[in-house]
Amino acid sequence: MTTTSSTIAQRILEAVMARKLHPGMRLGEQPLAMLFDCSRTLVREALLQLATRGIVTVSARRGWYVVEPTQDEAREAFDARQVIERGLIRQNTRLDKSAVTKLKQHLAKEQAAVAGDDVGLRSYLLGDFHVCLAECLGNRLLADTLRDLTARTTLIAMRYQSLHDAAQSCDDHVHIVAALERGDMAQAEALMADHIGTISATLRKPTDSDPLAQLRDALQPMPVEAGKPRSTRTAAGRSKTTTPRTNPSAPSSSPPQQDDSSYLGALL
User: Fold this and answer.
1) What residues form DSSP beta bridges with 63?
2) pLDDT at position 267
3) Phi, psi at 242, each rounded to 5°
4) What percentage of the chain reaches a pLDDT higher than 90?
5) Confidence class for position 268, pLDDT limits 50, 70, 90
6) DSSP conformation class of 65
7) Which residue ranges form the domains of the chain, and what is each CATH number?
8) What is the 8-class DSSP label of residue 260?
9) Rounded to two decimals, what is the model's pTM?
């Protein structure tokens, strides 16, 4: 198969939905060109496509990288999905049998993936359900829009540590399809609103809000207990141990105890 910029963009998008590419991950043109066995020009075209769709971005300092959505962008993405997905359901009166069959086939794959241990496939199928639903509701243009929005909300869920359980998401999808099959569009719309709203509500503050937090914690001075010997460096570069001053006339009550911390290296 001939590699095109569109196929490269699609592969990157699928990797995002499968949680294989994380927010902030760098996408070098040369490594991608080597992986896809194509020119850097073709890779750049693919990345430009994804940039216009809000999946990747570029800076003079960092090059190309996967977007890191802000809290405002996260809210806007979920609001957009509410408008599009609820609107799609509302404008339909009933799904035909072939559409219901297609959705049920997708649900069967979802349930198998949730029961399995392939996290990437599970994540991809849970997100792709919403794209499949838009296609079944008869709007391919909005299905393409939802594909991008679903990829963005996948990145949001990774960055903001969504607590929404995969099995719960799959169960929500089952109930939505059941309502659509009954022709109860109002119930299906309400279930979709709850589903998207619940995922949005489970987002937590990103753990990397302070980029220096991990380094700051690592470089905190080590606490020194009172009375413990402390090693210092002499002017000649030799290590010298200093101990707290004691009364030289006081009798020694017990022989000096060996400091167990000196054996830490052996334990590690």
Assistant:
1) 59
2) 39
3) -110, 145
4) 66
5) very low
6) E
7) 5-66 (1.10.10.10), 71-201 (1.20.120.530)
8) G
9) 0.73
Asked if 1 and 7 count as a contact pair (C-beta separation under 8 A), the reply is yes
**Residue with tokens 């496509």, as numbered in its chain:** 49
Checking 96-102 for CB contacts under 8 A at 24+ apart, the result is 99/136, 99/137, 100/136, 100/177, 100/180, 100/181, 102/132, 102/136
**β-strand partners of 66:** 56
Q: Return the pLDDT at 264.
A: 38
- Rounded Cα gap, residues 186 and 21, in angstroms: 36
For 237-249, the pLDDT digits (tens) are 555 555 555 555 5
3 neighbors 38 (Cβ within 8 angstroms): yes
Q: How sure is the predictor about 228, in pLDDT bands with cuts at 50, 70 and 90?
A: low
**For position 266, what pLDDT does the model report?**
38
Give φ, ψ of 222 to 5 degrees. Answer: -75, 135
Provide φ and ψ at 64, rounded to 5°.
Answer: -85, 140
